[in-house]
Amino acid sequence: MKSNPVYKRETTVRSRSLRMPLIIFAFNGILALTALLNMYQTVAQVRTTSMIQYSTFLDLYAFVATLEFLLLMFIMPALTSGSISGERERQTLELLFTTKMSPNDIIMGKLFSAVEQLLILVASSLPIVLLTFVYGSVDFRDLGLLLICFTIVAFYAGGIGILFSSLLRRSTFSNVCTYGVLLFIVVGTYMLNIFLLNMDQIYISNMVLQPGMERPMADTGMAVWALLFNPVATFAEILGNQVSGGASIISIRSFFGSNTGSVLLKYWIPISLAVQSVVSFVIIRCAVYCLNPVKNEKK
Amino acid sequence: MLKIHGLKKKFGNFQALNGLDMEIEEGALYGFVGPNGAGKTTAIRIVTGLLLPDEGTVELAGRDALKYREEVKTEFGYVPDEFGMYDNLKVWEYMEFFASCYGMSGLVARKRCTELLEQVRLDDRADAFVDSLSRGMKQRLCLARALIHDPKFLVLDEPTSGMDPRNRMEFKEVLKELCAEGKTILVSSHILSELSQMCTDIGIIDAGKIVLSGSMWEILQKVNDSNPLLIKVYDRREEAIRLLRQDPAVKTISIREEDIMVQFHGDYEAEAYLLKRLVDGGIPVSGFIREQGDLESIFMQITNREKGKVVLTSEE
C-alpha cells in the first residue's frame, strides 16, 4: 500500500494538518479522564466500604469499546463518502484515469488511508483499554476479537461510503445516501425484527392452547438473518459476551424465541463477521467497477 | 502519430461524433477547431481513453488505442480544459505525485520534475502551494504534469482559455519549444488567431466530423483562391474593367472604394498573365493583390451553416 500514490498523497496531506493530532489528543484525553475518574471512584469506594467493585473496570472497557465502535461506524463514512466525488469535483479524477492508476488503485488508496486514520485512533487508545487488564476478566483474545470487529466495521462502513462516492457526482448527495443506507442497516434491521417479534407475541397471546401445552416464545423467524448484516448487532453480541456474559441491551437472543439451540445463534459472532467481511469485499469491488470510466460502454 | 477513422458517438438523441476522420503526422502542432458542441471534447476524451466510441477506430503511435487502452496511456499526456489541481500540495509534491502515478520514484522522478518545472518557468515556485499560483502558472504546471512521463503526444483541450495575453504568449512559446523537441501536439482552442500563428496543421470540426483539414499553408492557400483580387489603377478604370472582362478566369467584377474587386479562378501564373495584359494594355496599375484570408474567416465561412454559406469543404 505504501507504493500506492493516492494513499501516499492522502497521508502526506493528513500528516501536514493539525487536525489528526488534535483529534487523537481530544479523544484520548476524554478516555483518560474517564478512566482516571473511574479509578478514583473505585479507590474512594475501597476507602469507605473496604470493597472493590471490579465490574466498574469492565464498565470502563465497555465505554471505551463502544465509543471507538461508534467512532468507526459514523466517522468512517464521512471520510470516504466524499473521497471520490471530491476528486470528481476538483476535476482530478479524469487526470488519474489517464495515468497508469487503475480504479482499483484509486479506491484502495482512498479506503486504506481512511481506515488507517481511524485505526491509528483506536491503536492510540489501547493503553487506556488495557487498564482493564490490571484486574483481569478481559483477556487478549477478547481484545483481539474486538479489534477484528473494529477492522471489519471500518471496511464495511468505509466501503459503503466509497461506493456512493464512486456512484454519485456530488459529495453532499453521496454523504446523505451513505448515512441513509447505514441507518437502514443499523436501525432498519432492528426495527424489522422488533416489529415481527411484537406481531408474533400478539399472535401467541391470542392462541388457544390445548391442556398441557406450553405457550411458545415469540420469535422473528427468518428476519433475524437480516441482523447478520448489522454491525451493531455483532458488536453488541461481542461486548455482551465479554462484559455481561451474553446479556446485552440490544441482544439478538430475544429474536430467536425458544430456538436457543440454533447453530446461527451459537456461532453468531463468527458468522456475522464473515458475512460483513464478504459484503464489504463485494461493496468495494462494486465501487471499483462503478469507478471505471468506460464500464457501461460497448466498443 | 494519431489516426482516427469513422468515429461515431451518440449521447441519447444527440450525435456528438458523426464519422470523424482525422490524421496527425508525427511532430505536428495540430490545431483542432470547431464551434461549441461540434464534438472536439468528445473526440479528445475518446483519444485519451475516458470514453468509448459507438463505432470507429483510433490508432495512437501505431497501436489500437481502444483495444490497448492501458498500454497507450504512456504515449500521451493530457491537459484538460479544467486544470485538476490538488490545492493542498506543494508544486513539487504535485509533480512527484503524478510521477508516481506513472511508476516513477526517487531521484529519477525528482530530476524529471526539476527539469520540467524549469522548462515551464516554475522552478522558483517549486515550494509554493498549488493554490497560491496564478491561473497562468497553474496552466503551465498542468502542462508540466502532462509531460512528466515524457510522452510523444500531447493533447490539450482549450489550454489558453481565461489566460491574460502575456501568459498566452508564454504558453504558446512553450508549445512551440515542445514541438521543436519532436513532440506531436493536438491543441483545441477557440482563439483562432493564436492557432494560426503557432499550428503547423489544422482540422476544423463541425457537427461531429472534420469539414476541413490540412497544413496551415494549404488551408490558407485554399481560402486565398476563393478570395477576390484587389486591383488598384491610377487612371483608365473603365478600360481596365473592359480588359478584365475578356479573361475567362474572371467571374465577377465589382468596385470597392478605389479598388476593382475581381473574383478570379486562377493560379499564380494566371494572376501574373492577367497583370501583364493590363500593363500591356496601357493601364497604370498601382496595386494588384489577392485579398488575404485568415483562420477566423475560414472558420466563419465553414461553420456558418444556418445562412447556407458553406463555401469550402475538404474535397474542394
List the helices and strands and how they pair.
The complex is a heterodimer of chains A (299) and B (316).
Chain A: H1 5-16, H2 19-49, H3 55-80, H4 83-89, H5 93-97, H6 103-124, H7 126-129, H8 140-167, H9 171-205, H10 231-243, H11 263-266, H12 268-291
Chain B: E1 2-11, E2 14-24, E3 29-33, H1 40-47, E4 55-60, E5 63-64, H2 69-72, E6 76-79, H3 91-101, H4 106-119, H5 135-146, E7 153-157, H6 165-180, E8 184-188, H7 192-198, E9 201-206, E10 209-215, H8 216-226, E11 229-233, H9 237-245, E12 250-256, E13 259-264, H10 268-280, E14 285-290, H11 295-303
- Which blocks of ≥5 consecutive residues of chain B have pLDDT under 50? 306-316
Characterize the largest beta sheet of chain B: strand count, sense, and whether it forms a barrel: 6 strands, mixed
Distance between the termini of chain B: 25 Å
Write down the CATH class of the largest domain in chain B.
Alpha Beta
Task: Count structural domains of chain B.
Answer: 2
Distance between the termini of chain A: 33 Å
Spatial sequence of strands, sheet with the most strands of chain B: 6-7-8-3-9-10
Helix-strand sequence of chain A: HHHHHHHHHHHH
Look at the helices and sheets of chain B and give the structural class: alpha/beta
Rg of chain B from C-alpha positions? 24 Å
Overall structural domain count of chain A: 1
Q: Structural class per helix/strand content of chain A?
A: mainly alpha
Spell out the CATH superfamily of the largest domain in chain B: P-loop containing nucleotide triphosphate hydrolases
How would the global form of chain B be characterised? elongated
Portion in strands of chain A: under 5%
Shape of chain A: flat
Model regions low in confidence, pLDDT < 50 over at least 5 residues of chain A: none
Radius of gyration of chain A (Å): 23 Å
